[in-house]
Design a protein that fits this description.
heterodimer; A: alpha/beta; Rossmann fold; 2 domains; six-stranded parallel beta sheet; 13 strands; B: 402 residues; mainly alpha; ABC transporter involved in vitamin B12 uptake, BtuC; globular
């Protein structure tokens, strides 16, 4: 018993020492190189991988030290500790894509109070007192573009389903709102089904959603799937109902999986953002903030509509996301 | 999570049933080691000496007279082992839901096409429920099922990618599938070892497994889904029907798993040991059951089922769907518990678990078809879950009082 207690105490001492050393390392006051941390929405999403690639390229160009972290899944409880750590390590700037527009406000406030400059990329917190710059695709415009393209694809009539992720994420909420508004105003002949939220990010739920939609509306002509998971689920559901190609599937993002689905004919439209540019802009604005220069409060990066007819064009290919930074 | 409120009398029946809240069966001390309180099929007013009840190993002193029970009573007993009062109640609830949705969306909900879609979309859930039932019956839990599903799919697809990719032959698909199943069983067995040898609670072991196996899958794939599952696998198993029938392969395979393992659970020694261990592991151990070895087998079985689920999912989606199965474990566990299984072990049946899974599935599809917000599904499932468990508790309290 005594020896076990001793081992425990020794172990804790080692861990404590390790933490202290790590802490010393990151807040190295002697280094003149500026430090930035990029916290993405989730590590396992090619959109964020592409953002990371763009940010790293820009950081190298500007001579800034950049560390990139992110939660394994797009969730608040997993991202919170990463943000809290930044309040301790105090880099010069934090570039972050918060997983909720409000839930992480207290943590971000702590970071900001500690002196770190906060820049939002992709998603943002709705509290205007947080963050010096907000860099994102104009998601509402993206939703609008999706509605315009899909509406034309289905000939302006029919029924369209909307399958999104959990509510409360600034980007997807804006996309869906933009999509629904444009569809209602430009294509009044199209019946829009109520938004369905795949809260648990489950491919199976998305599949069951679209299958139920098709069963209830045998003439379903199109569907808008907000991300790669809902797109995979919807595509499988459409295939099971033997309606591939008949139900035009539109999605957001040009993940390699989604592009492969376009090549095989299960997706007809992908609205692509430019995450590499968002990452690069984030680093650039962060450096401006650190150097006391003017910071652009809002930057809207461009979006394009990729369809089977233009997916192989050179100008379009640069919008397709990467799964690693080698290419 | 063990009850341990039963005494083990050495000179008598080695496995006095305890079950958790007092099992269904009464056991007279001088009689046979009857049911360990599995939601049991041996009713107290029935022949008290039914050695074939979900009892533990046969005690040498069992009076053979009971074996001579006539065929009719034997069939009744067999039937009772498959379905009990719990299942009747949940089955009624399921039927009410089906009738309601058929009424609200006639020709749409109650169509062969719709049931076919529901069955195939829930095929991998059903298969995982089979494995989870065994685990929960032992008073354990397996939180890693979704992650093992993904791992198995990744391993299977990885093999196929290197041997033909999208045009891989059936032989390659076969080998890949076996590798996937073996991966599943292996992951499960490792968890079983954690539970038995390291003596870590199943909740923690399988939580760790969930995190670790997810991480491993991401490591192997480099973070991005493998996309080109063999076309033959997708077109035949994923989208096709059993030749000459309107029955999708996904439904055929998942139902076959349910039937095979449901029968194993109800009628074999493996099944009885599972109930015994869940009911009273100490008594089971003293009765001569190799509890640790059995538990490892049970967790390996759960892993194997998750592996099979992974193959079915790969066939359906055509990709490894790395990020799309994170909360499958909750769906599966909810199904098992809704079906009447007790998280304290020893009580539950395969049929109950199937019904328990069917209820949320019917709710999701039904609510989607009639256009009602699917958040109502969550409210409904929560209510049904609490109602089902509290009804069960109520029933047991009544029995104990009597």
């Amino acid at each position: 018993m005594h020896s076990r207690l001793r081992t425990m105490v020794a172990g804790m001492a080692v861990v404590g020492l390790g933490v202290a050393i790590a802490g010393c390392g990151s807040s190295s006051g002697g280094s003149s190189q500026k430090t930035m941390e990029l916290i993405v929405g989730t590590k396992s999403d090619d959109f964020y991988v592409t953002m990371e690639c763009g940010a790293e390229q820009e950081a190298k160009k500007l001579g800034v030290k950049l560390t990139v972290t992110g939660p394994a899944t797009f969730s608040v409880p997993e991202q919170k500790p990463l943000i809290d750590t930044v309040a301790v390590t105090k880099p010069d700037a934090l570039i972050v894509a918060p997983t909720d527009s409000a839930a992480l406000d207290p943590d971000l406030e702590r970071v900001q109070k500690a002196g770190t400059k906060v820049i939002f990329v992709d998603t943002s917190a709705s509290d205007p007192s947080l963050g010096l710059s907000r860099i994102s695709s104009d998601n509402a415009a993206g939703g609008k573009l999706a509605a315009d393209t899909l509406g034309n694809l289905i000939g302006g009539t029919g029924t369209v389903a909307v399958i999104s992720v959990a509510k409360g994420v600034s980007t997807t909420d804006a996309r869906v709102a933009g999509f629904e508004q444009e569809m209602a105003s430009k294509f009044p002949g199209v019946k829009l089904l109520a938004e369905q939220n795949d809260d648990a990010d489950s491919v199976t739920t998305a599949e069951q959603f679209i299958e139920g939609d098709i069963t209830a509306n045998p003439g379903l002509s199109g569907a808008f799937a907000a991300n790669v998971i809902t797109a995979q689920g919807a595509a499988a559901g459409i295939a099971q109902a033997h309606k591939t190609g008949t139900v035009k599937l539109a999605t957001f993002d040009a993940d390699p999986t989604q592009m492969s689905m376009m090549s095989s004919g299960t997706i007809q439209l992908a609205i692509a953002q430019e995450p590499a540019l968002e990452g690069a802009d984030g680093v650039e604005q962060a450096l401006n903030a650190i150097d006391g220069k003017a910071v652009t409060k809002n930057i809207a990066t461009p979006l394009i509509a990729i369809t089977p007819s233009n997916e192989n064009q050179a100008s379009v290919k640069s919008y397709i996301y990467e799964s690693n930074c080698a290419g | 999570m063990t009850s341990g409120d039963s005494e083990v009398q050495r000179d008598e029946t080695p496995a006095a049933p305890g079950g958790d809240s007092g099992g269904d069966s009464k056991v007279e001390a001088e009689e046979t080691p009857a049911a360990p309180g599995g939601d049991s099929k041996v009713q107290a007013d029935e022949t008290p000496a039914a050695p074939s009840g979900n009892g533990v190993a046969q005690h040498p002193g069992v009076p053979p007279a009971s074996r001579g029970a006539d065929a009719g009573a034997a069939v009744l007993r067999a039937g009772r082992r498959l379905i009990t009062f719990s299942e009747t109640w949940t089955l009624v609830a399921l039927i009410i839901l089906i009738v309601y949705f058929s009424f609200r969306a006639p020709g749409k909900f109650d169509s062969l096409n719709d049931f076919s879609l529901m069955g195939s979309a829930n095929a991998w859930y059903l298969v995982m429920v089979v494995g989870e039932t065994f685990v929960i019956l032992t008073a354990g839990i397996d939180l890693a099922v979704g992650a093992v599903l993904v791992m198995a799919g990744v391993v299977a697809d990885l093999y196929c990618l290197h041997h033909g990719g999208a045009s891989a032959s059936w032989a390659v698909i076969g080998v890949g599938s076996v590798l996937g199943l073996a991966t599943g069983a292996g992951c499960g067995a490792v968890q079983g070892l954690g539970v038995t040898k390291l003596k870590v609670p199943p909740l923690i072991v399988t939580l760790g497994g969930f995190i670790a196996f997810t991480g491993a899958a991401y490591l192997i794939t480099g973070g991005s889904d493998f996309r080109n599952a063999p076309n033959r696998l997708v077109n035949t198993i994923g989208l096709g029907n059993v030749p000459g029938t309107p029955l999708p392969w996904l439904i055929a395979i998942s139902f076959a798993a349910v039937i095979v393992f449901g029968l194993i659970l109800a009628f074999t020694r493996f099944g009885r040991y599972t109930y015994a261990i869940g009911s009273n592991p100490e008594a089971a151990r003293r009765a001569g059951i190799a509890v640790d070895r059995h538990l490892i087998k049970v967790y390996a079985l759960s892993g194997l089922m998750a592996g099979l689920a992974g193959i079915l999912s790969l066939a359906n989606f055509g990709t490894t769907t790395l990020a799309g199965h994170s909360f499958d474990n909750l769906t599966v566990i909810t199904g098992v518990v809704l079906g009447g299984a007790s998280l304290f072990g020893g009580r539950g049946t395969m049929l109950g678990s199937v019904i328990g899974l069917a209820i949320p599935a019917v709710l999701l599809t039904g609510l989607t078809i009639i256009g009602l917000n699917t958040y109502w599904q969550d409210v409904a499932i929560g209510a049904v879950l609490v109602a089902a468990v509290s009804l069960d508790q109520f029933r047991h309290r009544l029995r104990e009082r009597a």
